[in-house]
Amino acid sequence: MSPSIVGLALILLGIVALVGTVIRVRTRITQKLFLPVSIIAGFVALILGPEVLGRLAGLVGLDALAEGGVFGADVLSVWSELPGLLISVVFATLFLGEAIPSPKRAVTLLGPQLSLGVTFGAGQYVIGVLLAVLLLAPLFGISPMVGALIEIGFEGGHGTAAGMAPVLTELGFEKGGDLALTMATVGIVSGILIGVIAVNWAARTGHSEYLDSKAELPEDEQRGLYVGDDRPSGGRLTVRASSLESLTLHLGIVGLAIVIGQLLLMALQAIEGALWADVVEIFSYVPLFPLAMLGGVIIQLVVDRTGRGDLLDRGTMERIQGASLDLLIIAALATLSLDTIANNFGPFAILAVAGIAWNVFVLFVLAPRFISRYWFERGIGDFGQSMGVTATGLLLMRMADPNRKSPAYESFGYKQLVFEPFFGGGIITAAAIPVIVQFGPIPFLIGMSVLLVVAILAGLLYFGKNPRFGDFETTAK
Questions:
Q1: Angstrom distance (rounded) from CA 268 to CA 349
Q2: pTM across the whole model
Q3: b/e for 389-424, b at 16 or more Cβ within 10 A?
């Protein structure tokens, strides 16, 4: 693939994102649904690509558009490779530029929040694998790997789904990547819809301590814009431009985190090859992105210990992460296979409905029993994340607690530090598919079931009944 084609592919992604922005700004339904521009732009690219426009063009004899739509086959080929590359950037930046807090400060808020998060994540695996073993594999003849798609698509989101697609393909489940991406789309849309309904319910019934039932997000926020002076900074410069552009430094740090992750993965694969590869192989199929996240954690710990944390700016890292995730989602959705979705609609629909039902059950039944105070403000954030992306959880928390008076944001952040390395694209997500292939779905199901039971019992019998986990005024600061 020539460099000019790669450059053109990136330029076209930016143009499609611009089209998506215009649609979001001018269309009320996308504003009411709070659809991210990347989702809108991804569907625009899908429609203009070979799956929709290309097929219609082929029917009327326009062969020039049949293979690649308006973008061309070469551009689509570049786009199909981008998600697997960009997901490592997204995960490498997760903890860069943000000091790792002391465990003593975080423990009060972390405990019940972590139990809730693990219940969401482990439960998605238990529900999915149970359905795969008892219903989907016998009835539809589909691989038991399909049981992991709820967690990959819902808890992991589009980035994780795109990152796991090569692993699924390598292990013989070629359709898994497209199904996971579609699951992620269903998750984020249904998560926002159900979340908005839940926020309105909490406002009417008094389950939110600070929510005004008549309050509505400003029009500009619904359109996805900042206006006037209400524009937050995108980041701070940490080195002088006469020496080096600050963005260049941060890109270099992200690159270093990915390299460290690659070295860690190679080391784990070498150890596995020397010790137990003849019996079982796991790390041979683990993707790079969860190790890139650990690479970022290592760098952050080093700069914290050496007193040079001021060189890394969290806002700049978030901009790098956000841009990478936007481009990843657009490229991934643009290259979806509609045939795969149509041919597997039955098992896909069963998994999606079951996953949504589980998340709703955890939010409304278990969250009030895990969290003794501010259960809705804190639970709705985890619900949003468990249906798609962290940004969805933050959006729903913003609606439930617009003035940030509850400890929801703080507890959510502490939980992420412990939760993200394992679920939603972490080590468990990365290892789930290889474990299912190597050992079968039953051992993995047993492991996730034990973890789920522990999380539920901890939430019900310890965190939910212990008053010190609701005494935020004296312990949260």
A1: 37
A2: 0.78
A3: bbbbbbbbbbbbbeeeebbbbbbbbbbbbebbbbbb
